[in-house]
Amino acid sequence: MRMFKWLKATIRGYFFAGLLVIVPLGITIFVISAVLRLMDRILDFLPPKFHPDTHLPFPIPGLGPILGLLLIMLTGILVKNYIGRRVVDFGEYLLSKIPLVRPVYAAAKQLLQAMFGDTHDAFKRVVLVEYPRKGVYALAFVTGVSSGELQEKTSSKMINVFLPTTPNPTSGFYLMVPEQEAIPLSISVEEAFKLLISGGAVELGVNLPQFPFGRRVREARTSGTDVSAQQPSTSSGGEDDKSEKNSVQLKDWASSEP
Q1: Does residue 160 lie within any of the structural domains?
Q2: How many domains, the chain?
Q3: Residue 256: what pLDDT?
Q4: Which of 37, 95, 186, 205 is the least buried, fewest Cβ under 10 Å from its Cβ?
Q5: Kindly report the CA angle at 240 between 236 and 246, in degrees rounded to 5?
Q6: Is residue 238 domain-resident?
Q7: Where are the alpha helices (DSSP H) in 41-100?
Q8: Does the pLDDT value for residue 38 go beyond 60?
Q9: At CA 226, angle to CA 17 and CA 215, rounded to 5?
Q10: Which of 181, 98, 197 has the alpha carbon at shortest distance from 142?
């Protein structure tokens, strides 16, 4: 009976160990292949005379993404000069006159500018806010500082936050939170997204193993040093100092916004 339980636990351990490797790998391959197939459809917009399949003996996967990257780079080069900028402004003016296209284009452009623009600091700070009630906290991203009438109607200084949903962080809620009630976090945006997508199953600070397979551990064993002793201390005093430092950084950042 004991042997049967040991064998059952061993087989179960081997099965889940293989599952943790095969499933993420399979999902990665599926997503990448789906994206490549989708981007390859860009070639369908080319006339048959210019289509690569017309001149090549066999189809080459990945030409669509390459063409898409070249198109993005070419558009960026054109936008950076005076004439290209005027052409884009004229095109945006025409789009602004189309009722159904105008709100979609404007919202998409503002979102991309907020996330990837050089002059914006949105989606780069992670905070904790009490939502949906007192005593319950949720992860949120600081997107800016409230201004205008939105700020004038409130008694305290407010900041704008985006509160994403789980497991799809691309949707969420826009909230205005008092600055003193937002708790700054030192985790990166990438770690926050991992927590949101996994529903909290992913532990913070757990990274992929370094190549080649624990080099730091082997070097530490060779030199006779303790790897755990090289890790930073997580004492309560250090956490208090870090929290106070993050709070000061958030206030300085908020006060610097126009």
Answers
A1: yes
A2: 1
A3: 53
A4: 205
A5: 140
A6: no
A7: 52-55, 63-80, 82-96
A8: yes
A9: 50
A10: 181
Pairing of strands 183-184, 172-178: unpaired
Per-residue pLDDT, 236: 44
Domain coverage including residue 176: 121-203+249-258
Domain-located, residue 68: no
| Distance in angstroms (rounded) separating the CA atoms of residues 174 and 152 | 18
Q: Which of 166, 172, 142, 156 is nearest to 254 (CA)?
A: 142
H-helix segments, 159-214: 189-198
Which pair of tokens denotes residue 41? Answer: 């459809």
| Mean pLDDT value across residues 127-147 | 91
pTM of this structure: 0.47
149-167 in b/e form (b: 16+ CB < 10 A) is: eeeeeeeeebbbbbbbeee
Q: Which amino acid is at 240?
A: D
What pLDDT score does 107 carry? Answer: 82
